[in-house]
Structure formats: C-alpha cells, structure tokens
Amino acid sequence: MTRNLIVRNILVSRQPRDEYVKYVMKCVSRGLKEHHDQVDVRAVRQGDDIQTKWQINDRVIEVTLKSDVLASLDTEPFALDEVFIRAFERNDVRVGPPNE
After folding, report:
1. Residue closest to 81 by CA, chosen among 10, 34, 6, 31
2. Domain extents in the chain
3. What are the tens digits of pLDDT across the range 48-93?
4. What interhelical angle do 2-14 and 17-33 show, nearest 10?
5. 47: phi > 0 → left, psi -120 to 50 → alpha, else beta; which?
6. Which residues contact 60 (CB under 8 A, 6 or more apart)?
7. For the whole prediction, is pTM greater than 0.90?
C-alpha cells in the first residue's frame, strides 16, 4: 500500500487531472473485471466536473466527479477510488477481491 501511495502521489503531481482520472478508472475497472464479464468506462469533462459512465455487464452506472473531489487529489490521491466504490456499492456491484 505504501508503494502504491507513493506512485499515486507522483502521478497526481505530474499528470494533468484528466489523465490521472483515466489512470484511476483503469485501475478500478481491473478490479471490476475480476467479477464481471463486461466492463467499459467513459469519461467526459463537464465544466469543472467529470462525468463518468460505467457499463458493467447489462448495467449502466453514472458517477459525477465534482470539482471539490478533483481539487482534493493533491492531498488525497485515493479519493476517486472511494467515490467510485461507494457508487458501485450503492448499486450492488461487486468490486475487488472476494470476501474471506
């Protein structure tokens, strides 16, 4: 986890915000693919926010990344992961390793 935090801090400080969002979306989609056959994700900038659309098997989940979350990435590089995971949990979509 420490190594991952270091990598995230470097990426968030050196990449444009939109590129960092795409990186996190790719990481999260890998976790989804462990449990779901079809996973596709798109992101569109809407003013200061970013609208993401996740297609997971036959379901579509839209998650808006508000400007305050995007602004917090310098100090909280895992903030996006938390937003996505909460949205998936609200929609009963399984993410990550199986519970033991």
Report:
1. 31
2. 2-90
3. 999 999 999 999 999 999 999 999 999 999 999 999 999 999 999 9
4. 140
5. left
6. 53, 54
7. no
- DSSP, collapsed to helix, strand or coil, labels residue 38 as coil
Q: How many CB atoms lie within 10 A of CB 55?
A: 14
- Tell me how far CA of residue 23 lies from CA of 26, 63, 100, in angstroms: 5, 16, 28
Token pair for residue 11?
Answer: 């990426």
**Any idea how long the chain is?**
100
* Residue in 99, 97, 95, 98 with CA at minimum distance from that of residue 41: 95
